[in-house]
Amino acid sequence: MFKEFLDKLLAPAPAILPDEEARLALTALLVRLARSDNVYSDVERDRIDRILRTRFALDTGATQILREQGEGLEAAAPDTVRFTRAIKEAVPYEDRTGVVEALWQVALADGKRDDGEDALIRLAANLLGVNDVDSAMARKRAEARA
């Protein structure tokens, strides 16, 4: 199911992804972050669902389907660079800061800061082209919501 999409992500010069595929790449990135500490908890799944529902105006069923597809893609994809590159090409800068904020929301969902999650967010923010100041502001907004 994900082979064609992964082929697009792995292409040397990928085309800009359609909205639906950009959503899937974002979802896979959120799942990758949630799984990065080897504990993918219900609270993290719930936070991902809430982010997807709000960001994309989805109903509960569509949200669950998108998250499950993101989980499958994340498990099949070789690295984080592919997701971030796809998102960077498809999403304007202002919305990419929102992606960093969403990553922080997932990282903070379980009430614990994890060094691995922090490192993955720093990497993702850098690969998304989000500067340090905007990334720090995104973290502060996520902390205020937690």
Automatic annotation (TrEMBL):
Listed Pfam families: TerB
The Co-chaperone DjlA N-terminal domain, residue ranges: 23-139
InterPro entries xrefs: DjlA_N (IPR007791), TerB-like (IPR029024)
Identification of the protein by name: Putative tellurite resistance protein B-like protein
Originating organism: Tritonibacter scottomollicae
